Amino acid sequence: MRPLDAIEARIEALAASPDAAAAAAELLTLGEEVLEHWICAKDEAPTQAKKEGFRLLALHRQGAKDVPSFNACRETCRELVYHHNLIIMQPGHPETAKRLRMAGLVANHLYLFVRGKLEESQLGEFCCSSKPVRSDAAGDNIGEQRGI
Length: 148
Prior knowledge:
Elements: H1 4-14, H2 20-41, H3 55-64, H4 74-89, H5 96-119, H6 131-134, H7 142-145
Helix pairs in contact: 1-2, 1-5, 2-3, 2-4, 2-5, 3-4, 4-5
């Protein structure tokens, strides 16, 4: 499992890959690795099982157990699978490049949610832009400092 910072950098690098099918498959794997970080942080071993044919969905299910706010990223996981399938099933489609960019954005959203959730456990109880992640203890708005 790669460090989270390495995952973030790799997601960004894949957005313009000339091999869309390979990039889509790797984005799915990166999504799995992001969820593995969450599960390991809960002192659990990540599952190797699949749900609906995808390990990503089984990892999400495992990560959401006893943490209802983690369900906030369920549709993000499903959307990553959807874009992966579009690219794999229609490799010559004229919108493949757009689909790959969207898959990259979705994978990045999953990364940001999990990274934020690791920093602030209540993230996702209202929305993924929860104020506790954007503010530090002194009340400064970190989001503005980071350009968010």
